[in-house]
Amino acid sequence: MTGPQPAEQWARIPAASADAGRVVTCDLTFGVDKPADIAFQLAVARSGRIHAERLDVATNGTPLARPVELSGPHGGRLHLLRAPRGILTVSYRAELVHPETEQPEGRAVPAGDLLTMEQLIFLRPSRYCPSDHVVGLAVAEFGALPPGRPRVEAVVDWIYHRVAYVVGSSAVHDSAEDTLLTGQGVCRDFAHLGITLCRALEVPARFAAVYAPGLDPMDFHAVFEAWIDGGWRTYDATRKVPRSSLVRIATGRDAADAAFADVLRGIATLHSLEVTATVTGNLPVDDPTADVHLY
Q1: 122 within some domain
Q2: Distance between CA atoms of 130 and 137, rounded to whole angstroms?
Q3: Residue 278 CB contacts under 8 Å (≥ 6 apart), including other chains
Q4: pLDDT for 207-231, tens place per residue?
Q5: Which residues constitute the domain of residue 33?
Q6: Boundaries of each Transglutaminase-like domain copy (predicted)?
Q7: In what order do the strands lie in the sheet with 221-228?
Q8: Of 133, 153, 262, 277, whose CB has the highest number of CB atoms within 10 Å?
Q9: Whether 97 contacts 21, CB under 8 Å
Q10: Would you list the DSSP string of 101-168?
Q11: Residue 9 forms part of a structural domain
Q12: CA gap 11, 8 in Å, rounded
């Protein structure tokens, strides 16, 4: 890790089994040309899994005050930092324990199968997921299948076989429509396309930014969750990592809600980014048809 190493740790609980533990880190370096307010989403979502974590920030090697933490949806946390001119370093590390004792996130469906407000939000079109533009395609490709799980699994399989994973093939402003037109993308684009097609098929779906042990090359990763049978199920059309190893960072309508860094005021340029994510023991093998809940 770069930057200063204060002794302070935010959270600590007794460790559970060492099997299936997780260690995640992220190191960022920015050049700040004009004092800047920056929002970071690097910390893992708040849950009982966190054994220990720390966040260190410094400018030109001098530690800065601890960033202000804001609570986001689904346990996500956003940190606000005011950075002076200079070289800003941000280092995050978290150790997580075995997740088996936790319950998957879910909401009861009201009488008459009416949607909750949360589900309604994730059924609507959003910036990168214009689901209202692809209803015809979605119905033509998947409408003959039974609603719910069969359609979502078919969507994931369709994306996996139809879209090529090509590093650097998309731009930050590309939407799911661009991915459909070019037939290529990265994890962010795969997730956006899955969300878009699910919403077009009347299945609430949402974006999740995650740490992903086993990803090669290592970086932040993106998957999507679909509301099926009273709970959120996790899907990854890239099929590059085991879903059971994933660690949630941020959740939202699409990538606009889950950026790892957002310069709100001032001028700051990202110079370097290094992400690591590991498991203790063997990396699990993923069954694409299995139910997986993201914690």
Answers
A1: yes
A2: 13
A3: 22, 23, 24, 213
A4: 999 999 999 999 999 999 999 988 9
A5: 22-98+262-277
A6: 179-239
A7: 231-235, 221-228, 205-211, 247-252
A8: 277
A9: yes
A10: TSPPP--PPPGGGPPPHHHHHTTS-BTTB-GGGSHHHHHHHHTTSPTTHHHHHHHHHHHHHHSEE-TT
A11: no
A12: 9
* Same domain assignment for residues 236 and 126: yes
- Would you report the helix, strand and coil content of the chain in percent, each value rounded to 5? 20, 35, 45
Q: Cβ neighbours of residue 40 under 8 Å, at least 6 residues apart?
A: 28, 67, 78, 79, 80, 81, 90, 260, 261
State the Cα–Cα distance between residues 26 and 32, nearest whole angstrom.
Answer: 19
Output the furthest CA–CA distance in the chain (Å, rounded). 61
Do 147 and 224 lie in a common domain?
yes
Give the number of domains in the chain. Answer: 2
pLDDT in tens, 26-85: 999 999 999 999 999 999 999 778 999 999 999 999 999 999 999 988 899 999 999 999
Q: What element of type H or E holds 194? A: helix 187-200
Number of other residues whose CB lies within 10 A of the CB of residue 195: 29
Instruction: Say if CB 72 and CB 44 are below 8 A apart.
Output: no
Contact 220, 209 (CB under 8 A): yes
Q: Determine, yes or no, domain membership for 137.
A: yes
Is it the case that residue 193 has pLDDT exceeding 80? Answer: yes
Same-domain status, 273 and 177: no
Per-residue pLDDT at 183: 97
Residue 190, C-beta contacts closer than 8 angstroms, at least 6 positions apart: 159, 163, 165, 179, 222, 236, 237, 238
128, burial (CB in 10 Å: exposed 0-12, middle 13-18, buried 19+): buried
Specify the DSSP class assigned to residue 16: -
